[in-house]
Sequence to fold (152 residues):
Amino acid sequence: MMVDAGETEREARRQVGVLPFRRDSDGAFSVLLVTSRESRRWVIPKGWPMKGRKPYEAAAREAYEEAGLLGQVGKRPLGFYLYEKRLKSRDSVLCQVKVFPLEVRKQLKAWPEQHQRELRWFRPAEAAEAVAEPGLAAIIRGALKRKGPAKG
Fold:
């Protein structure tokens, strides 16, 4: 019996990402967002898990590749969110992103994807408004209500 794919419970594919943040000279926090390559939406650096790397290490690697960021990544995730990733085939897959805090220490002048994305520092409330995914917005709001994302 054929079951329509839309009717079945789809298994979310797992991804890892970072919420890059810094404390500014006025003591307030800023969050860095990057644009996605396809739809140019504001998102966080994220990608697929990497063989031989812990999830938080893979997430930190994505921050380097997508935004030239180096810093201290937390080992405990801030939370998870779901989104629909559009594939080159025009299909989409449901992804669950595990988000780790990344305290940015340095932003490099050159990095692998610098000509494929825009990046911008936002105040947390503006970052939460700029992202399309409600789950990601909630993570941004929640993480920076405390005294900044906890580094686990």
User: Anything to note?
Assistant: Helices lie at 55-67, 124-130, 134-145. The first strand starts at residue 13 and ends at 23.
